[in-house]
Each structure stands twice: as C-alpha cells, then as structure tokens.
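Service request form, structural biology core

Requester: graduate student, group of Dr. S.
Request type: structure prediction, single chain
Budget code: on file
Notes: please return the result as structure tokens.

Sequence provided:
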Amino acid sequence: MTPRRAPTIYEVAAHAGVSIKTVSRVLNGEPNVRPKVQERVKRAVSELGYRPKASARGLAGGRSFTLVTFLDEALTLDHWKIDRSNPYVERLQFGGMMACREAGYHLLFELLNAEAENAEAILSSTLSALNPDGVILTPPISDNQKILEILVRMGTPFARLSATETDVACLSITMDERAGAYEATMHLIGLGHKRIGFIAGTPGLASSRARQDGYTDAMRASDLPVDTATMLQSDYTYEGGKASGRSLLSLAKPPTAIFAANDEMALGVIHVASELGVDVPRDLSVVGFDDFPASRYSQPTLTTVRQPVGDMAAQAAQRLIAHAAAKTTQELNAALAISHAFVVRNSTSQPKEG
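Core staff response, request fulfilled:
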C-alpha cells in the first residue's frame, strides 16, 4: 500500500479559507489573529492531520517548538519500582501535552538528579541537545536553588510547579496544599472524629510539609491533641500507605479516621483495613489528597482533595509557549494560584461512638 502523503501548509490554508501567512501566525502562537480565524485554522490542521516540521519552524523563528519537563530521578524511579505507575506524572503528561498539542509543540520528559555533583553538566548537556523553548520543573527540583540559578545563568525560561517562594524571578504555579489539608481534616472533625491519624508523604518535599501543617493547624484550631503516635512518616506510595495503615490500626486505641497525604496511601489504608476486618467508613473514615482516577472507582470511593495537576502543567506550558512567541518576560514573572476542591465520596462518615 502506498503511504499517504502528508498534507502541506498550502492545503491547510485552502481548507481554512485563509492565507498561508495566517496559518503560520496561528501555528506560531502569534497575537492579533481573530479567535474565529484561529479556530478555523486549528480545525483544518486537525481534520487534515497536518504536522508542522519543528526543525523548519525553529530555523524560521528561532524556536524549537519543544518544552522539557524535568522529574526527580530518585523519586520517579523509586515510585516505579514499588507501584509500577505514577498517577502524578500521568496527569502532568496529559495536561502538559494537551496544551502543547494545541500550539503545535512537543513535550518531552527527562529525569534529573539535582543533588548529583555533575548535575549542572548533565542539565547543560540535556538543554544543549534538546534546545527547548522552556522548561517545567516538578518537585523537589522546583525548589532546588542550584538548578534555578543554572537555568537563569543559561537564559532558559522555566516554570516551577508546587514550589515554595524564591527570590529568583520566574513563573511559579501552585495550589494551597496547606489549605487543602486543613479542609480535609476539618471535614473529619466536623463528622465528629477526635482521634484522627495522619500519614505524611515523602520527607523533604514541600508538599509533604504543607499537608502535614494543614492537618496540625486544623487539629489545634479544634483543640484536639496532635499525637505523635498517630502521625506517621511514609513515602507517597500504595505500599507505604498499607504499612502505615497497619501500624495505626494496630494501636491499642486506633484512630477512628485517617487522613493520608495522597490518594495512593489512602487506598493502601483501605486495602489493609479490609484485610483486618475494619469496615470503611463504618469503623474507619479515610481521606486522601490529589483525586487521582483510581479514587473514583475504589470500594468505597475515596473522599479526597482534588489537586489540579494537569491544569498546573497546562498553565505552565501555555505561559512558556506565549513567552517564546512574544519574546518578553511578561508571561514568566508571575505567581499563579490554582484552586483546589474538596470531594466528598463514600469513605467518610460519623464515628460509631457518635
């Protein structure tokens, strides 16, 4: 069978009823193209299956039409070895790739050990080889001052996800994780729970500290004791949730509710509760954090804090792409806050003792 010939930019222009120059402006994300015209061009690109050549566009406009997302090497590989999946990365990929696809961009993912002695050499080599128009940093790399300074020195535009404040002028996109954890804990307190266990995430991550602080804030605001015996350190994995859940439920006076700092650990708690004959939510209420897809299909379905990871990645990609098109710093000197939502499902109820 003869391979189908790839459509050309001339055919896209004819299909959309516009000039070749207009098609080029839309593909390059340039301003001052009417929304209806943009929609016609994008529809023509989609219907014809047109794929611009990144190399040609890069030569013409000084852009590579590529963004790179850096993931922490140790965390990513450890998570994969334990669970063979990573819902956080999956949502990053989907949100970022959808935003890139709309603009004719490619999104690549790379692992980086930011603590390695040769981190600067590896980062420089990677960026030289890929020549991205921008970089998206994920935790904990997004809080690594050394990496931020290297990127500034190299003149590489970047966006930081879920990071703490920094003096470096850059784009930061966050969600108030402390407030989300506070709301989750107050939900349990509002149901009447007083003995509430907490399972913390991976040590050293800003998210772990923020979620633990939200939990302790709510407990203290409600004049409830913060008991170190019911606060366990874990690692954001399903297996970690199972181990911590077993420890909490084995206490002489176990908690009536457990707030796990992410959904995977919360689902691990539900699993071990079932093994021990503890009914969720009749005997034990469980709350998670993230609202990953599995939370909607677990038995029971999981009450959780929805963290819009995909939206955060999409915002980062859109801002970096706009910056590359306009060649200004306006899109990058900002701190954006993405709202969370608290989702009540079937894993929480009033404690048996009222």
